[in-house]
Predict the structure of DUF5723 domain-containing protein.
Amino acid sequence: MKKIIITICLLATAATLFAQSKEDTTLMKNFRLDFAVPDMPAFKMLGTNPSNILRPSSPQALSLMISEIGGGDGFVLPKSFAAELAPYILMKSRSLTLEDYDKNSQLYNLRLSLGTSRNPENSTTTDVSIGFRSTLIDKGDLKNDQQYRRHVYKLLADKGELKDKYQDEYLTNNNLSIHDVVQSEVKKTSMNEYINNKIEDYEANFDYRLDTLKQGFKERNWNKQKLDVALAMLGSSPDSLTENIEFNKFSLWSTYGAPVGTNGQILLGFNYNYFTNDSLEYGITSLTSRFYGGSNSYKGFGEIQVKRNENLNSNFIYLALGGEINIKDGIWANISAGLERNWTDNNSYFVSHFDLRFTIPEDIKLF
């Protein structure tokens, strides 16, 4: 019986070491990139941007958007903001592995967004929006790139081999066997400290090599094929506490993105808004095309949108230029300006938009 128990302990110890190595090679935090923070369905519902295209991108655990930051003669709190989160990624936090993701990828990329906006005409009415989004195609995501996976596995396998090497080194230097270590908590602690101290230099070098791989991947893959679908609804509350909300607007999006050469991307988007109240029901349909040129960190775009408003029985065209800038790891700025023309009554309007977008920086490996 004693031999059986010892054997089980040895196997459990080996399995634990193997499991730790396996977990290291598949943790999702090694595959997260600071791509452009995408548009959020809940934010689009607030109507702060004349463009109705929903910018697709890879799922982020948590993102935030704010708009209408300036007002009057100085800085004021933003009038519109929204947050988007991927609930299942957040629930798994640091323990989410590629194996888990592969089994339930569509579940993990489901995202929920919430947005609020103060009515510019009074200080009490508040608009509240709720949105849902799913990514059906994402060829720019590290998690879906088999070649990158092999590179990371190789780096992490080297790390696992070093752990085994330093474990054997500790046992030899101290004239111990794995049996001796298993039976003593003090010796196990001492061995782990020895291994951790030895591997510190490799860790620093590993992080550098991993970051180098990721930076190169971002520049080559920011414009790869993507397809997002989303829906949202908007309600109004007569007070700032968002009580007694009545939802009266519903929206559906589909956006496809494809690369154009090595430094360009084209987006083709569809959006349908349905409005309803006690006396009126109507829809607004938009078809939008946007072209990006540049790099992951700095890119400009041109956009054309045609829109049909059933209530006004009018057709609109929107032409705009803009840019997307990565200010710092996890912080993005989006700016655009253009002309919207009502072809039915021949009126034109100049419109502009600016927003800031935030997500968890790559350097903070929480998720």
Summary: The chain has two domains: 2-29+146-219, 32-140+222-359. The first helix runs from residue 2 to 26. The two ends are 44 Å apart (CA to CA). The chain is about 30% helix and 40% strand.
